[in-house]
Design brief:
The complex is a heterodimer.
Chain A (H helix, E strand, L loop, with lengths): L1 H32 L17 H34 L16 H29 L7 E8 L2 E6 L7 E4 L3 H6 L22 E4 L3 E8 L4 E5 L4 E5 L5 E6 L6 E7 L12 E6 L1 H22 L10 H8 L3
Parallel strand pairs in A: 1-5, 4-10
Antiparallel strand pairs in A: 1-2, 2-3, 5-8, 6-7, 6-9, 9-10
Helix pairs in contact in A: 1-2, 2-3
Chain B lengths: L6 H13 L5 H5 L4 H29 L10 H36 L7 H20 L25 H29 L12 H32 L13 H35 L6 H14 L15 H29 L8 H24 L1 H7 L3 H31 L5 H28 L13 H30 L38
Helix pairs in contact in B: 3-4, 3-5, 3-15, 4-5, 4-6, 4-8, 4-13, 5-6, 6-7, 7-8, 7-9, 8-10, 8-11, 8-13, 9-10, 10-11, 11-13, 11-14, 13-14, 14-15
Classes of the chains: A alpha+beta, B mainly alpha.
Amino acid sequence: MRVIRGDDGRNAARARRCGIAGALCLAAFGWATSAAANTSNGYNLPLGVTEVSRDIYALHMEAFWICVGIAVLVFGAMIYSLLKFRHSRGAVADTTLSHSTQVEIIWTLVPAVILVVMAIPAAKLILKMEDTRNSELSIRVTGYQWKWEYQYMDAAAGIDIFSTLARDSNFARQLHSGVDPNTVPNYLLDVDKPLVIPSGTKVRLLLTSQDVIHAWWVPDFGAKRSAVPGFVNELWFTIDPGKEGIYRGQCAALCGRDHGFMPIVVDVRTPDEFKKWVADQKAAAQPAAAADGRTADGRPTDRRTAAAQALPN
Amino acid sequence: MATIEASGTAHLEEHHEHHGPATGIKRWLFATNHKDIGTMYLVFSLIMFFVGGAMAMVIRAELFKPGLQLVDPELFNQMTTNHALVMIFGAVMPAFVGLANWMVPLQIGAPDMALPRMNNFSFWILPFAFTLLLSTFFVPGGMVAGGWTMYPPLVLQSGDSFPMLIFAIHMMGASSIMGAINVIVTVMNMRAPGMNLLKMPLFCWSWLITAYLLIAVMPVLAGAVTMLLTDHYFKTSFFSAAGGGDPVMFEHIFWFFGHPEVYIMILPAFGVISEILPTFSRKPLFGATSMIYAIASIAFLSFIVWGHHMFVDGMPLAAQMFYMMSTMLIAVPTGVKVFNWTATMWRGSLSFEPPMLFALAFLFMFTIGGFSGVMLALVPADFQYQNTYFVVAHFHYVLVPGAVFAIMAAVYYWIPKWTGHMYSMKLAHWHFWLSTIFVNLLFFPQHFLGLAGMPRRIPDYAVQFTDWNMVSSIGAFGFGLSQILFVIVIIQCVRGGKPASAKVWDGALPTGLEWTLPSPAPYHSFTTAPDVK
């Protein structure tokens, strides 16, 4: 009596396990084959708009498929054991099967080899990502609680942008605001003044912070780096030509109360459009500067003073 | 009655047998019996599991929909911070210490732990430490909200709760160090004659190695938080660039503790699984010696991987390469363990009592957590995963269906030995299936969220993350409620139930000295050393 009832429960359990395993495999396949694009499809990393982001995506997928392959083997062996070697079905344990040096060596060496195979493209990509030489445009990025500042250098020197969460998002996100986030365009991913950069140009960010550790991250660029107060971290990316547009990211290091409310928006333009934008920005700053030595934002135009003020002394 | 030991011991033995355990509160306040202390650790950890769980409910309730509905972002950060502190230091670690206290002496044939009074102190520090920690909720400024990782300069912006947190951590650390000392001295000195180290059960081995890890790294945590304290109050600048220091140095010191810490939380779980799987497979553990070497290798490697928590912080190229390799290397001994457990089941004769169900769920889901760990080790990919929900999914998979399920498996396995009663199989099965289904609903979608771009430690999110957050929150509520079943099973089992035999799992193959004792195990057991062949 007991055996029969137990068996029913176990058959149901077995069916459930098969179902779960099958569903997982299908899900993995569906997830992996859904179109990768500039931005994430909601399940997977984005392919992104830089060569680095594409390389990262490829590395990630390679690792994923290797894991799926190993999972099929290992979970397959487990599920097979659960189904085949049941006490309730009269299986008798083979108590002599308790060690095998040969098998241990195999399943130590084979995974080690697989890991080496994964590590090689990873190491190559690290080398590529760490090569910050020959950048064409540098921008100093400062994290604050809770906004970003972008100070352009090189040909665009003098442009200084504070980038804060957009007003409509900021209003909607207040506790009990009564505003449905779905009615706010780009809720929590919009700012008043975005970072503007040219495509097809190696842009290098010099990241620091005025207060606590922040992190600058735009998933579609495959670019993330911490902004540490008192130190400068380098981060570079080159947006593919033809991929102009708006890209959004967020702060990626807990930095206090409004860590979730200091997004990043990058407006990628063609190099010509960018040159025009730079000229426009400088022109707009001129009349105010001539008047009282300050920019339209009220900050001193003397870059050294501003620089000294941006870093802790 | 007289034994080979001095007649004084024999006299004490008779004395105890007349009086049994003390009655009332004295029994617990002044406990020196490893069984009583083990019980206290386990009860304490269960309470803390619910406290930490309540904090998680606040988190998932807020994250159910986009927009802020329930809590101020600052309070949300307090919840995420203290959820982790309570779960790590109040639930998982004390639960494993409780299991060690109960089972190590029984498994090695010792009458008690080597240092029973220090054992008492180790336990009683914890209620004080957690009263202090939890009372920070009522302090002006609220609880510390800088993450359980306490990175400066952010954590130095905390208010009055900050020194209370530091003091609580010091206390917890002292408790862990003393507990670890006790385990090592007990295992090295009090094994029954004939039980050489290679004959010792895997659970004791896993705790022996874990104890060494604890002694090595808890003092490092103590140093790190003390430096935070002096930076805040005594004008040192360990972590402030203005004074010549470096916030990233804190990360190094913290994670030098932090990474072995996560292995401290999983190695005893490995030990538990290595006890349970062979029993219900009716077959010896496959490659027991390899399993011991694997635990030792994992413990050693755990000291040289800490940098993988810091890849995005501006790490030099050579360091990125080194930490990537060392982190990937840890997958090798861990894989060996998973394969050996699978081989234990292979050609066995399996039955599916609750301990086995939880052990099997561990095997499947810890492995999933391991896969995301290997992916996280790849530095370039990690630049996309770091500080996103992908990391949250990884560590919750290895900690919840990993460590916590192993603790539950251990309780379901050994509680008949502790209480002398079997428990309701029906309730235990319901607990298992509900927990397993909901834990996957809770954490699996978080992989998607992380890959889709959702950062961690945020109380509100962009609307494209809505659906998976909703599923995850439903999983959280379901999982939390299901744990009530666990409490019911335990309480019913303590109070009564079908009497358990000495072997408890008749028909299965439980090996180990604990199964030679009657159920419940006598208050004083192995007062004479057993014969170990």
